[in-house]
Amino acid sequence: MSFIEWFLSFIYKIKTFPLIIQITIVLTLVFIISSLALMITIWTIRRRYNRIQKKLEETLPEIKKLFEDILFTNKIYTESEIYKNFEDIVEDVNKESLDIAVNVLVDFKNDDRESENYELIISALGIIEHLERKFDSRLNSEKMDAFQEAFVLNLNKFDAKVLRYAYSKNRRIRSEARNSYLALSSNDPYRFFDEFEGDITKWDEIELMQYLKLQNERGNLEGLGKWINYSKNDSLVIFLIKMVGHFQQKGIEEILIEKLEDDNSKVRAEAITTLGELNIRETEQTLIDRYYTEPEICQVAIVKTIQKFNSGKSLRFLQEIFTESNNTDTKKIIAESILNYSYEGRIAFQNLKNSLKGFDLTILKHVETPLIKYK
Fold first, then answer.
1. CA 20 to 30 Å from 256, out of 236, 267, 289, 339?
2. What is the pLDDT of residues 314-326, one digit of tens each?
3. Domain count, the chain
């Protein structure tokens, strides 16, 4: 029996079944055929994609060599020559090949391989337009890649694109867009500081620090002081105070001194630490006066800041609080400060060793020789 005859007989048998069974059989067949067609389509697309990716990976050494010639040698290329050479290597300049090109440039940037010719390649291959299409993609992963790539390549041409996602319902996209706006925008880059939600995580700190570093290179960090004063998010305030010390920002001493009166002890402690980072020695006596009224986190910050000042005026104070402190970890920090407090500090440290006994002496010996345990 031929297939056609079998199929016709099958149709005839179906017609003899009740209507509900006929409908069920037809829908089941449609579902099976559709599923098979979908599986075949996905397999074909995936196979084609893998073949293209494999072919592009094979061209990766040639792409790297081309870009290295353009970026790191004295050879001179025009935009049309760059496009033609790249096209000869990849055969088709499309999304996949441009993704490879962007990845190569990002790797160079991440390895701190600087050149004035990055913009030449970016312009020749239309990478700005390529990233704009990724920003417009329906896939969140594509958008996230675009945020990161635009940042690493220092392409501050996407203010409008990034701003569009700054109010996305997707928390990851919204957070990445606001962080990227900080890095990429030259117009009010800190506009989203007052909309930070909740505590800043360590990962947030790492990302924000990268973006602030870029703004610092542009000479655009003056706005930090305003947000330390105005932000209601203590977690953000603490981070920004830390960044003031890290980037050695000047002219906000008064703001830091005001933060010594903040209700949050963590904010006060970070302000004290940053006074030390900026070496604002005129606050030394103020910090000493505050010591006995502050909680331990602030006391430790005061001790470390006084050590950084290393003015020679506070050695007696450090000796007094060492003998008065009842906290083992705090005693250890104070002892380290005395030991590292110039030549007079080392003499005072030895005098303490000679005059003390018991557990306090064990702490001093541990500070001097960390292999000696004190707990």
1. 339
2. 989 998 898 888 8
3. 2
